[in-house]
Amino acid sequence: QAQLVESGGGLVQAGGSLRLSCADSKRSFTSYAMAWFRQVPGKEREYVASISWTGRNTYYDDSVKGRFTISRDTTTNTVWLQMNQLKGEDTAVYYCAAGDTLPNIRSAGRYAAWGQGTQVTVSS
After folding, report:
1. Which of 11, 28, 46, 58 has its CA 20 to 30 A from that of 34?
2. Where are the beta strands (DSSP E) in 1-124?
3. What pLDDT is stored for residue 2 in this prediction?
4. Are 88 and 122 in contact (CB under 8 A)?
């Protein structure tokens, strides 16, 4: 069964950095767009960033643009989210997703495969 496995979450102070990883354990999504979403309790899952299957095209929500960087190793099909200048409002469970879709698509419903999520907590 295809799997996406996230890691790298944790507790960090405001202004700090974290790097999330998403491993496509069976390399099932090498030709898929990949994305990061986040969710806080009581709210819908929201788009953070996405990347094309080649890794050449990246897209960001305005709330993270300039602070977060998404990247991809096409050899291992690992996707990273480097998060800098973290703020309290970045606190959420972060999910990696894969979708047979255009990489600029921000709707969670267009992404068919999801990881289990990793908690990011930013303390002020």
Report:
1. 11
2. 4-7, 10-13, 18-24, 33-39, 46-51, 58-60, 68-73, 78-83, 92-99, 113-114, 118-123
3. 65
4. yes
Amino acid residing at 17? S
Largest CA distance in the chain: 40
Tokens 């309290």 belong to which residue?
Answer: 88
CB atoms within 10 A of CB 110: 14
Q: In what order do the strands lie in the sheet with 18-24?
A: 4-7, 18-24, 78-83, 68-73
> pLDDT tens for residues 30-74?
999 999 999 999 999 999 999 999 999 999 999 999 999 999 999
